[in-house]
Each structure stands twice: as C-alpha cells, then as structure tokens.
Write a structure and sequence with these properties.
With 176 residues, this protein is of the alpha+beta class. Helices cover 44% and strands 20% of the residues. The protein has one domain. A three-stranded antiparallel sheet has the order 3-5-4.
C-alpha cells in the first residue's frame, strides 16, 4: 500500500504519532488490527517494473527457447540470460548450509537461483546467488534485454519491437 506522510506529533511521554494518508480502503484492516501491536515499515515508494518490459523479456525468452535445438523452456532461457549478464552476490557457505540457502533463495522466483563456483577451503563453497530481474534497475534491465536481443539476432530470429519502441518501453519502465 502506498500513501503520503501528513503529520508527525510528539507526545509528552516521547512517543510519536505518524499520520499517513492512503488512497485505498484500509477500513477492514484497521478494524482487524486496531489496538494490536503491529509491525510498521515506512520507506520511499518505488514503482514496479513495466509490464511491457516484462512481457518483452518473456517473449524474447520464449522465441529463443523454441528456436534452440533441443527446444528449451522460456524459464531456462531466462535463467541463462540472468547468469550471462545478471546481478549476483558471492557468498562463502559451509557445505551443510549450501542446500538450505539454495532452496530458500530459489523460492523468491524464477530468476533467483544459485551456482556453486569454487571450493573456498575446508568444508566451504563459494556460491553465486543470482537476483531475479524484478529487482533490476532500468540500466540492469536494459543489459538483460540487450543480451536477449543479441541472442535473437545471432539466431536470425525476428525482434518483436523496433529499437525506438524498445527505448520507449525502457523509458516507461524507468518512470513507473
């Protein structure tokens, strides 16, 4: 839910009241939680990714996947693209933690996967934890889309958008 901070008052005992104006109906949630201790997080709102950019990414993954021999799923192509140009964090884990971390990490979504890349000493492994594109900045998404477009061009597959349309799509994503 998004809203706007409207007021902050400080009580005599030092506690503070924060007033937030929200645009959606909060009445049922308010009634359910009134007078209960709740967890509160307030941060600057960010806009979600463009559905157009997301749809374009998946269309490219589908086209590439169908053209490969043998054919691959769009999800496999997406993970291949994420691995090729994506964002990851490198961690060193004890051997007994690797499977648990991999399982929990991958539960975030299709593009969230891990790869053991090296031995990190006795009983440890170096692991790359890849982030799904839902967390990408506009410039990171641009790199991902450009990689997919390049793959299509190398495979002589038609690109469903012109360069101008692609730029407009990414510009809209940056503003959302």
């Amino acid at each position: 839910m998004t809203g706007k901070l409207r007021d902050l008052t400080v009580n005599r005992d030092g506690t503070q009241n924060v007033t937030v104006t929200v645009s959606s109906d909060f009445s049922q949630t308010y009634e359910a939680l009134k007078d209960k201790t709740v967890s509160v997080e307030i941060k600057k709102a960010t806009h979600g990714r463009s559905r157009d950019a997301n749809a374009f990414c998946w269309a490219l993954c589908s086209d590439i996947g169908r053209a490969l021999k043998p054919p691959q799923s769009k999800e496999d192509v997406y993970r291949m693209a994420i691995k090729a140009v994506g964002v990851y964090t490198e961690v060193v884990l004890y051997l007994w933690d690797v499977r648990t971390v991999e399982r929990r990490w991958s539960s975030h979504g299709t593009g969230w996967f891990s790869e053991v890349v090296d031995d990190a000493g006795t009983g440890k492994k170096t692991v790359h934890l890849y982030y799904g594109s839902s967390t990408y900045s506009v410039s990171e998404m641009r790199v991902l889309l450009e990689w997919l477009i390049d793959q299509c061009q190398q495979m002589e597959l038609p690109i469903p958008l012109s360069k101008k349309d692609e730029e407009e799509l990414l510009e809209r994503w940056g503003k959302r």
